[in-house]
User: Fold tRNA (guanine(26)-N(2))-dimethyltransferase from Camelina sativa.
Amino acid sequence: METDLNDYTVIKEGEAEILMHKKNQVFFNKAQVNNRDMSIAVLREFISKRKQEYEGKPSKRTRSASKVNGKDSSDASKEDTPSENGLSNGEHKVASEDGPPSSASKDPAKTTEGFAPREPKPPKVLEALSASGLRALRYAREIEGIGQVVALDNDLASVEACQRNIKFSGSVAISKVESHHTDARVHMITHPKEFDVVDLDPYGSPSIFLDSAIQSVTDGGLLMCTATDMAVLCGGNGEVCYSKYGSYPLRGKYCHEMALRILLASIESHANRYKRYIVPVLSVQMDFYVRVFVRVYTSASAMKNTPLKLSYVYQCIGCDSFHLQPVGRSLPKNNSVRYLPAIGPVVQQECSHCGKKYNMGGPIWSAPMHDPEWVTSILSSVNSMKDRYPAYDKISAVLTTVSEELLDVPLYLSLHNLCATLKCISPSAAMFRSAVINANYRISGTHVNPLGMKTDAPMEIIWDIMRCWVKNHPIKAQSPEHPGSIILSKEPSHQVDFSRHIGSLSKAQAKKIARFLPNPEKHWGPKLRAGRQITSKHVSLIGHGAVNGHLNQHHEELKEEDEDGAEQEDNLKDKVDLKRQKTTTEDISSTS
Assistant:
C-alpha cells in the first residue's frame, strides 16, 4: 500500500499515532478523546476485575478435587486414623494427582489443593465500527494484558486507512490489531459469545447493532455503547425514538439522563430475548453523546427481574413534577418469588400540585446506572495515571461527580426550572440542599447538569420548600390560572429549615475540585460525516476558518481540474489537426 505522506497529517493521541488524509475521506473527531479515554479507563478496570473473579472461581479440576477431598476426609473422620505421612487420605490423594506431596509444600504459589492459581486468557476486543482505527490502536498500545483487537468497518476507505495506520504504528499494533472489511452485524451474529469486550461507537444511533452485539459478548463480558442521536433520545422526535429504542422520551430538564436510561432499557430488552441481562457499571453523558458500560450475563431466572428495573414516567405539563410507575413487582412466596404487574397508577388524572394533565413516557431503566465500587476504583486508577490520559481533566471531573450521585434516585430536578414555574428568584444551591437535608431527605448533584439535583424527597416537600422561600422573597402577582399561582395558593404542610447544613456541599465542592469544565476549544462537538462535501452551512460544526479553508482548497482544486481539462482539450485538438493534415497529405500523394 503506497502512501504519499504529503497528502496526510500525523495525528497523535495518547500513545497512538495515525495518518489522516487531508480530505474528509475517513471519519475522525478530536472531541471523542474524552470517549476514548473513558473507555480505556473502564477497560483497565474490567481486566483487573475479571482477573480477580477468575482467580476466585475454582476450575472444574479444583471442584472435582474438592469433592474428592470432602469424600475422603469424611472417610478419614469415620476411621479416625491418619495416613503414613501424617496427611489425611483426601489431601494425600489430591497431592498425588498433581505430584508428590513435598512439591505442594515447597511451592507457595499453589493452592491448598495442590493446584496453581489459573490465569485468564487476555480479553478479546471487538471494535465494531473502527473508521481510522485510532481507538483500536490505543487499546492495543496502552492497555496492559489486552488480547487481540478486531477492528471492523463496512467502508473500504476506512479499512484501508485502518490497515495503513496499523502498519504505521509498528510491531505492537501489527501483532495485536487486525482489520476486516465486513458488516459488523454479520460478523457479530456469526461469532456468538466470542468477544470479552464489544465496543459500539457509531455515527448516530446504535440501535441496529444492539441485537447482534448482545449475542457476541461472552458471559460476564463488557459491552460499551455510544449514542450520538441526542435530539431523538431527548424528545425532539419521540416517535423515532420509540421505533429505534422502544421507549417514548419526554422533554423535561432531565432529558439527558432519560436518554441514558432509555438506552439501558433498550439494551436490556435485546438481552432478554436470549435469556441474558445486563448490569451497568458506568453510564455517562458527555459533550454531545451518551456512553454506557454494561456487563452481560446469561440467566433465565435472573432475567425475570427485568420488569422490576423498568418504569414509566408521568410528567406534569404545567409544573414539570414527575413520578415513576414501575412496570412490575415481586411477591415473596415460601421459598420462591412470584412476579406480578405493578399496582397503579401512581398519579391521578390531574396534577395534585397545579391541576394540569400528565404526559407519560418510557419505559426507562430505573435501577442504578453505576456500580459505586467500579466508579471509585476507576477514579483512583485514573488519578494514579493522569499522564497517560490526554483528557484527564475531563474524565476525572465526570467520574468525581458520578461518584457522589445518589444511585437509587432516577432522574433529577432543576432548581432554576422550579423557580421559573413560580416566577421567583432562585435560592442558592447550598440553601436549597440544606432545606432538603434538614427535612431528613437525601440530595446530591448529577454529572449530567450542573444545576440538576437528585433527591428522594417527594414533590410535596419540594414545593413546600419553594413556598416558604417565596414567602420570604415575595413575587409579583401572576394569573390565577398559571401553574405557579395555583401552587403558591396552597399553604405549606411542612416546616422548612433553611439553616446551613454541613452536608449541603459535596466533598468535591468542599475541596473546590472542578466538576464541570468548559470545552477546550471552539466547535468542540459533532463533526461532519466522512465523505460529505463541506459547504458554508457547516459553519456551526467546524467554524468559519475551517469552512473557508476547505472552500478555498476546493476552488483551487476545481481551477486545477479546469486547467488540466483545458490543456487536455488543446492536446486533443492538436492531435486531431495532425491527423487531418496527415490524411490530406496521403490523399494528395495518392492522386498524384
User: Anything to note?
Assistant: The first helix runs from residue 33 to 56.
